[in-house]
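Example (one chain per record):
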Amino acid sequence: MNEIKGGCNCGAVRYQINRNPMTVAICHCSNCRRQSGSAFSVNVIIPAAAMHISGTLTTYTDHDTDSGQPVDRQFCAQCGSPICSLSSASPQIAIIKAGTADDPARLTPAIHVWTSTALPWVNIPADLPQFARNPQ
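Predicted structure:
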C-alpha cells in the first residue's frame, strides 16, 4: 500500500496520499470522539507533504488540546465530513480520518492512544501498544 485515496461523503473533497502511513492510531480522546461522533477516531498518520487535497475545506481551530497548541480540524465545506487534522505542535504531520479512505479495510490500526479516557465498554486488544495519552 503506497497510495491512499479518499474523500468526503458528497464527493466535493478528494485527497491522495502518495506514501505508506507512518501508523494508524485509534484515539480515545474526547475531542476525537466528538469529531467522529463515535467512541473513538481511527486516524491515519502521514507526513503533511505527502497529502494532496482538492476541493474546499472548512477549518475549526480547536484550542482545547493537551499540548496547548491549536489543532486545525478540517472538514468538507458542503457535507461536513471530517477529513483531516493538523496540529501546530507537529506541523510536519497530517492526521487523516481512516473512514474517509476509498479502501479503509487496508488501514489496520497499530496503536491506541488516550486510553486513559477510553469509554469503559470499548475493548482494546491486548496485543496492540496502548498509551494513556499521546506517545512521546
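Caption: The chain has one domain: 4-116.
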